[in-house]
């Protein structure tokens, strides 16, 4: 979880909060509608959480940070749930027994939906009763943004679960997952000078975006559109995965250890590349933006092209002049604090900066991001070996 | 799976086979009745299989070795299932994609019950049609014994799944899991001389029991009853888990690595030992036979008592004079072939001897063993670190 | 190894090169004088190389990049040495057999000194013969800087080898390893604005320093002196290693995994902190700058103090106003390319940017750095868990 | 270490003990004569000990069990050595600091030879002074046998150290390592019945050989000579390493994990099999007995031939009728206690049975066994994956 700007939000009308709450909470369940009960339970790798855990954890957030401390006479749904659905908030509760999320058959999916009903009912009661102070609005809005982040992870993790099943079940036949990147390809040019980046203005943002500040940039050019499957396939076919000179040392170790030869979900079947998508296994769509590549692959591709990835400052400065939103875009910026970054106090703010090491910034948004959740100052971040996000490549020079 | 004595069975009446088939198949499903769908899916450690896998794998056996080769015009239920439900039969099918059983949310539980229905229907058709030859009867009987072995594993694995959930859900409130071992404790004495062990006579046996043969035994004494929780607790309280001198070197490494201090499912809660049973978490029942100990623990306990575990020959020779059936009893015999042991040809017999290294023999049966499945010549075997079976200790000297 | 600025050096007089060569080569051997032969061989962890490997590898550099391609009729000393002393230059030779450096008893130490004599003799012949072109001077100077880098590693690795021996043998009784940091502690203040960083001018630099460029900095203050053992001991005694809130998530995982409670080489003996130094095990010297801490520890200490580590740009801008040279100083800057960074072609330049991911920049120099080897634009870098370097902490805000 | 029969030895003349002591102690040093100092230090895998450790550990045995407790006024050579040279005797001293033997450059080789001189001098003083009681003679003789066991390990480990160096240095050009197995190949036949095995009579034996006892054997036949390189090459060329059906399940896992395709020290160079021997790398000698195979390979070879390995009882019964002594011969018997096996008290006898699990018995002796050290009742044992011993194959049926 990333954290909130507690200073800038304003007290909205009760009805707006109410509608927003229902919409966000409903969308999490909507995303799970195509699932079998069995799909809610499994965890094929450590970074993936079982869908039922996402549903419980986002609910636990509202119960823990709003209902328990602020709703009079609230009865906890189940004392054990704090242990099960806490993630990394080390100040809340003990974490003695070691069990992996993917081994927990109970609470059942039905129990968790009951938990959601129970908390929703009390949240509505809470909103109705006008207990909201400015500070609680901030936490409430943070809870909604937190749930939206988990909505993206939910879809990402569902894809991983189904895409690693040898039966390759589709998530849904109805959604359109092949995205088009058919803009005319051109460079956008920027002159050297002082620019400003970081969040400013009204509305919600996470604390890592705050502290609008000046940066000095050299001249640079950035592509207006993303690298396509076709372009990436050229890299594969030119032997990109077997020539160390394009790779970081760590990246090359990753290639050798995993015998990597393509993005995640690409399968070479009878000599032909197929891709597992949310619609099932299908022919590769060449004009779509390449997806599910890690930082090493993004950087190696750029190196092979004689170009580079943009920095996050370059990206943000050019955001209004390029087309973005289909893929989270790897930048060549490490995830580090902005000047004047400050930790918030207490459990909500506990971990403001705790992930600011050995991760790289992703900018933009992806087709899995809930509508309205991202913005041009949004700083997403992942470790460099991860492929399971909807990640892509934009080039600069 | 262990394999069959193809030579000694006789052609039973069709009705007997028919009834036996329904009984065995029904009992597997009966065992799963208390489960939630989520419980069928998870795999908390590599040695445990998800219950739905047991249900599918035992069905796959009949489809693969009887229906496909011997029922005219049989249509395979699903081509992919051979990959999913094959276990270690390396001659059947390819095993290219590596996925763990515990990561497979599909086929769903409903799909697997449909699979069972489909195969049952065709098996009944097959039995009705009198296609049985002597050789097919043998495979059919093997399939039933194979399913019974998996019934024991099913219950063992369910206990592990529920017993490693922090909510400690009971499997069933109705069953009685605390067993009594309240015989008068005494030694049975045997004189040195030549004895015979191994299966002989009519009826089914696995091939590892075959080859009845002479062994020479020295004088020995064996206890008529098993070590109890109370006796084992004395060992714990005397510091048995912190004094290396009672342990094998490998066993002591195991103790240190896992910081072991009690059998599996024992929990020291507020200074008091509790045990997770199939009825849930409860007070320790002191008179019950100790359960869920591995070979290292059994041998260390015996050493602390100044005694030893019996050999499998000693056990078999004394089987008619002692009380057995509550716990699989660790012997101090390695699982090795009897004289004149021969591999069978083909996939069924593929692995006759493949497990005959670095495992120890267990004799008897446990409360989880299906009625009628074991016998005094039965050779069970496990690796020495395993605790999750219903294992116990009998002493000899 | 880091790489060279091929453009800026000028052709020095032959005598200067000659003297420089002898000095640098001699100093490597001087550093090894206190060693027993056995000390040259071992490798107690993967990041440490056996001293004899450093002696061979630095020699291999001159043989491979100068003598073989440029000295007429040069006979390679031993064909196998390319395999043994190559480090990570993947374009030179095959690397089929996997053996760890610490397992190689041969070539013997005597063989390696013979190798050094042989290469030195031919290098002198080469320098005498005036074969030097500007390009070769650059490689030659790079070879000397490369050897100096290994001199620092040599001392660092020797300390690790002797400091992990239960006999705690001193490296040398003659050297003074307790360093003083007894400046008056004060903050140096800088105003926001555009500054320039990066190498410029004559003389040698590595390529990662090149590309002098503008950066915009906010107001900042930086301490003129380093954090002392006494100050760090306060952090330890205040429970710094047992409170997660000061640590990055990765750092806290490191603490728990290693049960870390102090810098490397600190030993709590009979309730008193002792430190292994190059003079042997001794009482802690409280006024010395704390040493052998990793990035996680440096950042946690700063967090506990309510301050932060400087960025590398802040450090470089203030370098002329602070006292530095005793410890490599962790910055909060990731090791990433400067604007307009370009890979060099060929094996020497093969890996210019290959380490520019998941490492943090260290600035300054340490008491183990050869005199004249560092400068204020020098960019050292290590992974965040490493403690075995002579690393320290400077605070900013 | 294995342990001693304390009951059967008789008090020899002082001169005999004296001569025996010098011979055994001298031979350890003789074995090390061809080594460089660097060869004494390294440990390329956990099962291999550095030669200097063997020299120190065997000396530590005499110091710890004879000089310290029984020589008046004896001054320990170095207090730290108990920590460094103790192996697994958990009752003697603490073992707090974890360092691997292969990381210890000190004590130096010279220190260890001084340690040997010092202990030898005091042992001679001890023998001269006629302090020997029957019990001390037993420990003294055990110490000599213990050192002989380490002499075999010393040679085995030296071969591993040099044989894993890419320079393939020979141990000694003078020794003859290609052994002949040119007996006429024939089966020796034995009738079913009661036989006796185990040590009896005068002289030294280890405790695991004691307890001469009856065993019942079925009819069996055993080859009088060992499987040759030529025969084993047939197995390789017939695809033995790529057909799972010949292997135990564990063995097949080992093959796949290590991509095994030949015995240890075999190298396929330019399409031709070469073997590293104590004389260096050379052409395979086809008539020599195959060497350096693990239990899995021995069992797979036997299975491919449609035969089996003998049990240890069969081997001992036929020992006078077959040619043995070139290779330690894998049997299909697990290393388990004989009837009436009893642990000795105290540190010497501490671990009598501690290795009696998950190891297989080897019978005979090898070209690396010191003359006079083995006998037909000798029970050697190793874990099933080990190849680095001088192990071979004899077939039975």
Automatic annotation (TrEMBL), chains A, B, C, D:
Top-level taxon of origin: Bacteria
InterPro entries: CTDL_fold (IPR016187), DinB-like (IPR024775), EgtB (IPR017806), Sulfatase_Mod_Factor_Kinase (IPR051043), SUMF_dom (IPR005532), SUMF_sf (IPR042095)
Keyword Iron recorded: yes
Pfam families: DinB_2 (PF12867), FGE-sulfatase (PF03781)
Start and end residues of each Sulfatase-modifying factor enzyme-like domain: 186-334
Database matches in SUPFAM superfamilies: C-type lectin-like (SSF56436)
Biological pathway: Amino-acid biosynthesis; ergothioneine biosynthesis
Residue stretches making up the DinB-like domain: 24-153
Sorted UniProt keywords: Iron, Oxidoreductase
Entries under Gene3D superfamilies matching the protein: paralog of FGE (formylglycine-generating enzyme)
Protein name: Ergothioneine biosynthesis protein EgtB
Species name: Sphingobacterium zeae
């Amino acid at each position: 979880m990333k954290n909130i700007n507690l200073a800038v939000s304003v007290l909205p009308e009760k009805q707006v909060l109410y509608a927003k709450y229902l919409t966000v909470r409903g969308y999490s369940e909507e995303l799970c509608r195509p699932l079998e009960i069995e799909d809610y339970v499994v965890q094929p790798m450590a970074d993936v959480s079982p869908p039922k855990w996402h549903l419980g954890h986002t609910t636990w957030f509202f119960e823990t940070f709003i209902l328990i401390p602020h709703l009079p006479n609230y009865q906890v749904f189940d004392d054990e749930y704090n242990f099960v659905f806490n993630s990394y908030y080390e100040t809340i509760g003990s974490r003695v027994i070691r069990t992996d999320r993917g081994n927990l058959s109970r609470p059942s999916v039905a129990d968790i939906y009951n938990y959601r009903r129970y908390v929703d009912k009390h949240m509505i009661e809470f909103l109705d009763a006008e207990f909201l102070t400015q500070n609680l609005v901030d936490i409430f809005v943070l809870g909604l943004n937190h749930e939206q982040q988990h909505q993206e992870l939910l879809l990402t993790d569902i894809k991983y679960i189904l895409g690693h099943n040898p039966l390759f079940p589709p998530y849904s036949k109805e959604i359109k997952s092949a995205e088009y990147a058919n803009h005319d390809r051109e460079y956008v040019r920027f002159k050297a000078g002082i620019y400003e980046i970081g969040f400013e203005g009204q509305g919600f943002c996470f604390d890592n975006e705050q502290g609008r500040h000046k940066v000095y940039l050299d001249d640079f050019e950035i592509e207006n559109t993303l690298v396509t499957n076709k372009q990436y396939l050229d890299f594969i076919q030119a032997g990109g995965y077997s020539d160390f000179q394009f790779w970081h040392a760590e990246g090359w170790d990753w290639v050798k250890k995993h015998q990597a030869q393509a993005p995640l979900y690409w399968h070479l079947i009878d000599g032909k590349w197929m891709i597992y998508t949310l619609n099932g296994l299908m022919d590769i769509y060449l004009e779509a933006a390449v997806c599910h590549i890690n930082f090493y692959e993004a950087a190696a591709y750029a190196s092979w092209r004689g170009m580079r990835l943009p920095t996050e400052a370059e990206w943000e400065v050019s955001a209004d002049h390029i087309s973005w939103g289909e893929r989270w875009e790897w930048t060549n910026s490490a995830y580090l604090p902005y000047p004047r970054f400050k930790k918030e106090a207490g459990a909500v703010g506990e971990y403001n900066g705790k992930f600011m090491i050995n991760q790289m910034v992703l900018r933009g948004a992806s087709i899995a991001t809930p509508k309205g959740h991202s913005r041009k100052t949004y700083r997403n971040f992942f470790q460099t070996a991860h492929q399971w996000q909807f990640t892509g490549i934009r080039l600069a020079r």
